[in-house]
Amino acid sequence: RSSYSCCYFVLPCCFFDFHGKYSRRQSKKTQYREYLDFVAQVGFVCGFHVEEDCLRIPSTKRVSFVGKSRTYPAAERALIDEQITQFINSRRTCAGATCDRRLGFNHEHHCGGLCKEAGSEPPEDETETAGTIWMPGFRPREKVEQVRNCASLPRDFVDEVVLNVANLLLNAAPQKSCSDKQSGNMNTWNQGESLSLREVAEHLDKEILKKLKSEYGGLQTLLKNNHQVFEVLNGRVHIRDWRKEKPPSKTKPEVKRRLSAEAFKTRLCWFFIHHPDGCSLPSEACPYAHGTEELR
């Protein structure tokens, strides 16, 4: 309803209607297929030629819909807007009722199964006029979406959190079993202890936690972003021991091999700088630079 020239792309995922969770109406279809038909129905009711496509993405929910053109001329926009209003009101007033069950879904039935039976009109206080663009309380997404995956946090702040968490793990009953068995050398490298995310959070400053809460995933996302230093498994935080990492696969696609080679020694090794025992790998085996002179 934003404009006649509007086009859209939608990748349906969670099963929601306009006012809450989508209620199933046809047991002969899978829940996913029934919901896809509903999303397509919304497009048809809004006067779009709806095209269906399947994306090449690693997800079970990969069927998308595209609306690039209208089924009616611009002069009929007011009429279609009335139809849209009726459709919205019908979804509001007969959620869980039998209107959709009786009429079903038909790609060629552009009115979308509107409830026209007696008693199906919405209450007066909920009636929308054709001039109302959005539903009451609807708030569209901001034009510029804020990045909230910890990637835009100040580097100094991230470095401080990483150092605090690493020191916490190193000082929490350090393990003595990480010996370099390949060389027969019994010199140990302190991998520290593992702690739950809750235990880590309890030791962090309140101001740090407050800042992380505004980010999606919070502390866990920040630690996972710092893959060089940490690994987070089953809700527990560990310091990464690069001696245990699997060597690069020879069957890895050429593009990934090239990117990996291009990134080699382009960043400083955190362990070489901050870990009390230095890096667990010799310089030639570590993918990170042991000192600025090694940086590429």
What does this structure look like?
The chain has 296 residues and is α+β, with helices and mostly antiparallel strands. It is 30% helix and 11% strand. The protein has a 3-stranded antiparallel beta sheet with strand order 1-3-2, with helices on one face. The protein has a 3-stranded antiparallel beta sheet with strand order 6-8-7. The model is unreliable at 98-131 and 177-186 (pLDDT under 50).
Task: Give a short summary of the structure.
By secondary structure, this protein is α+β, with helices and mostly antiparallel strands. It contains nine helices and eight strands.
SSE topology:
Blueprint lengths: L7 E3 L20 H15 L2 E7 L8 E8 L6 H17 L5 H5 L51 H16 L8 E2 L4 E4 L6 E2 H6 L3 H8 L4 H8 L4 E4 L2 E4 L14 H10 L6 H5 L22
